[in-house]
User: What shape does this take?
Amino acid sequence: MPIFGLALKSLLNRRLTACLMVLSISLSVMLLLGVERLRTQARAGFANTISGTDLVVGARTGATALLLHAVFRIGYATNNVSWTTYQDIARYPRVRWTIPLSLGDSFRGFTVLGTSGDYFRHYRYARDRALEFAAGTAFDDVYDAVLGVDVAREFNLRLHDSLVVAHGAVDAESSRHTDKPFRVVGILSKTGTPVDRTVHVSLAGLEAIHVDWQSGVRAPGAGVSADEARRQNLTPRSITAFLVGLDSRNAVFHVQRFINDYRKEPLLAVLPGVVLQELWDAIGVGEKALLGVSALVALVGLCGMVTALLTGLNERRREMAVLRSVGARPRHVLALIVGEAIALGAGGLAVGVALLYLGLFIAQSFIQTHLGLFIEIGAPSVYEWLLLALVLLASFVAGLWPAILAYRYSLIDGMTVHV
Amino acid sequence: MTPAVIEIRELEFGWSADRPLLRIDRLEIAATERIFVHGPSGSGKSTLLSLLAGVVLPQRGSVRVLGTEIPQLRGAARDTFRADHFGIIFQMFNLVPYLSVVENVTLPCRFSSRRRDQAQARGGAEREARRLLEHLDLSAEAGSSRAVTRLSVGQQQRVAAARALIGRPEIVLADEPTSALDADRREAFLQLLFRECESEGATLLFVSHDRSLEGLFDRSLALDDVTWQPVTAET
Assistant: This one.
């Protein structure tokens, strides 16, 4: 095709305009792919947070609120589940394992979770992945703590370091349990879930630091030392929620009904997968709107290109006449303009994808620390290739308009040079 | 007499059907003839060239070029025919701004395989372009990477002449190519053009309203009024 070389040279001659057009297309491509990538990664991260758990159980509240609190550590529980109820359900037939969860304390903005050793044995995330220790072991002593990887990294904590947790979500000086520090005995490997941002202690440990506290404040004059606390009964009276694993998925509705109809206490049992899906559907509206907006931005980029091509067209009528005089057919003129549009579109795609990957490399750790979202940097997905192809197709279609105009000009003008 | 390269019979053309602009009963141009076409503005000088090149079609009559009836060719075939057999020089702005001097000259070889082959037979399109540019006193410009828009008007017209001649087309159509040049440069340009047309064996149709050049041509055609008939030949 003799014409494509001409199209490239013509663009090269108008470097500045061409660069600006490529830039505007590439920025919109970057936005489009970036939003798409955040969207799918967020969704995957969301769905990967919990796996293998059949039921999440807590005091009766909204299903979403329970899941957000128990799994994502977002929000507050209004009521607790009594220890005897928990014991009762843990012993119910078909229940294979349970993981008690006790929330409410924090360590410099990170959640402190009281649980049992079963947490490290049975908790699963992503596709049935178990928690692994990067260093150390699970807690054993009352004052042992196991850190999620982000907590350890943020405060540069190592094994045998000590840390002081605070009462409630706000880590204020007055609310710290300074008299009963914890010792780091284990650090978990990266999971990409809220586990990374959690400090895990035993239920007994959580109980111990609160023996001399009453309704949220330290009881005046009732100081109990760390060692004295060990000797007290450290069985909790209640927990916030618990996870249930069954010996068969078939039993899930039966057990769920049993828990929801539990007479001694109003409880709620939810299937995490179902609630996650509902939750995502609710968020999905915003997420789709975001994708829509970035598609519009891509459209704006292409409109800019069409505008630039159309503006240049009139002063190029002379060039078209010259090309016609040396034997170019009207369809060559058409191909010249469309070729320019496709070259600009393809250039925009290439630069946009390059910018996206550059941006991802730079922003990866920032997004992870600030949004808790792990962005995997991989090759474009089939859907992303499809989006790219769509942009290229759109630039072809967008180029058709000025090209058809040029084609008509060249038919009308023939070899008459308009000055 | 050598066989006619161009033969026109009972041709009628007008942009609207009721007002013919051009009417030619009979016109024959022999190979290697140098014809001067003159007439006032609007007398159809450029239109005659467009008719010959097959860019516009007559309402009536026959236009035979090299034995081919132009109006009977389909659009694409006319484009090919034009690229193969015509070299065309415009009044001004002949060059494609984003191509180099040599690329401008070799442009017809991109669209016409016949002219590409002819240039190839002489050592390649690029070499042929340099040879023609050299003959037209543009050897320095041929090698330079300077933008063609920076060339003087006279130089641009000579580049256009080289482009019209590359690949040895049989007919060169020149539409007032000297009107932007000053008087002494006009004649120098013409002499160069004549020399090259002669050595390439091309027939030259030269349109101008500047009668002072008329004497340099083999014969001249006057397109004075629309009822111009029959063709008068002067020497």
User: Anything to note?
Assistant: Chain B touches chain A at residues 46, 49-50, 53, 55-56, 75-76, 79-80, 82-84, 88, 90-99, 103, 107-108, 110-112, 163 (CB under 8 Å). The two ends of chain B are 16 Å apart (CA to CA). The first helix of chain B runs from residue 45 to 53.
